[in-house]
Write a structure and sequence with these properties.
Distance between the termini: 32 Å
Number of helices: 5
Order of helices and strands: EEEHEHEHEEHEH
Shape: globular
Largest sheet: 8 strands, mixed
CATH architecture: 3-Layer(aba) Sandwich
CATH superfamily: Alpha/Beta hydrolase fold, catalytic domain
Number of domains: 1
Strand content: 15-25%
CATH topology: Rossmann fold
Number of strands: 8
CATH class: Alpha Beta
Radius of gyration: 16 Å
């Protein structure tokens, strides 16, 4: 059975949102995921290579994945809204996967700015069973919302990330309440240069795991 790939527009709070829904290869999905992209003011889109690998890794682990462009990105309407409006966009994506796959548990995930969006959304939505934060930018000081997340928080991080240097990420991770997990990927930069395969393999393992570990 060929996997379902659908491009669509969601009715967002600031106008239509461009999105892509992809089911796993050859199997029925066992979980759903909403994946959030990097900062729209720095070229971030749902087609970013780290976001693509996050989505593909989760699909290989049996997830149906919905990626989307925030307001004002490519064909999505509206304007950048400092992470607040982008969280509302992610909530629309979450409601879409809930409506389409009401029987499936839901994971939220995101890269860089998108990791903050995914974490903020998870702090507000009880339906999300875990969150995967890739390349969490510790250079942004405001992060109190992470302390309100009760579900597993999995951080995936490059060993050489200028937006989240290893000492800073480790210090931040110590303050994060359980349950939590930290996966280091030996790589050259924030975008997992020379290590995208290892990064995707880690996402597959995380996607297959029932909880932490």
């Amino acid at each position: 059975m060929p996997r379902r790939i659908e491009t669509l527009f969601l009715a967002g709070p600031a106008g239509k949102l461009e999105a892509m829904l992809e089911e796993p290869e050859d199997i029925e999905p066992v979980e759903a995921a909403v994946v959030c992209h990097p900062h729209p003011k720095h070229g971030g889109t749902m087609h970013n290579k780290v976001v693509y690998r996050l989505a593909r890794g989760l699909r290989k682990a049996g997830h149906v994945v919905l990626r989307f462009n925030y307001r004002g990105v490519n064909l999505s309407e509206g304007e950048y809204d400092r992470g607040i409006g982008e969280t509302e966009d992610a909530r629309v994506a979450l409601r879409e996967v809930q409506a389409r796959y009401p029987h499936l548990p839901v994971t939220a995930g995101g890269f860089s700015f998108g990791s903050r969006v995914a974490l903020r959304l998870t702090s507000q939505e009880r339906v999300i069973r875990r969150v995967i934060a890739v390349g969490f930018p510790t250079v942004v000081p405001e992060r109190e919302f992470v302390n309100h997340i009760k579900v597993p928080k999995i951080f995936v991080h490059s060993t050489h990330d200028k937006f989240g240097p290893r000492p800073d990420l480790e210090a931040f991770f110590e303050t994060v309440p359980e349950p939590k997990q930290l996966e280091w990927i030996e790589s050259a930069d924030h975008f997992f240069r020379d290590a995208l395969d290892a990064y995707e393999d880690a996402i597959i393992r995380i996607g297959l795991a029932d909880g932490l570990g």
